[in-house]
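Re: the request from the purification team.
They wanted to know what the chain is likely to look like in 3D before they choose a buffer screen. I agreed to run a prediction and write the result into the notebook, where they can find it.
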Amino acid sequence: LYRESSPIVWHDLILFQEQAREYFSHIGLIIFLNEEDGFAFLKQGREPEHDTEESSLPKLIQQRAISFELSLLLVILRRKLAEHDNLSADPRLILDERDILQMLKVFLPVTNNDVKQKKDVDALIEKSVELGVMRRMSHDPKKLEILRILTAIFDADKLGALDSLIVEYKA
């Protein structure tokens, strides 16, 4: 849920936050709410391996495996978002598709088929839009806003661990 895309629902969630948290806790879900950046989502409360047989709840939120290339793109975008936060007062990070291609190209295998490579990167961008970590700008569909929910998916600890893996992969 994003504050700017659903302001009425966002207002209600903020107003009834405690009741919503209580409701979802009964089915093993936690509301992750970031008022400052204006997003919220549900996540599984406890990992099933920590449950006892009597208290175990079914897993309601499925985790999906994503490809290495998509993971790489998300880590690069998260790093870019951190750099943007350090260098700019503007809360929004907007990138052009070409910028994303150039950032990712460093990690992709060298190829003679630039058209196929661009098509593959476009597919990764579309998958990122579907996952809700990027949004196309309505006035220019070639420009994408990198959404702040990415900071919740890849916190500083995860980003550091993934950065070291990327350095190994690049070498």
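For the purification team: The chain has a mean pLDDT of 84.
Please add any questions underneath this entry.
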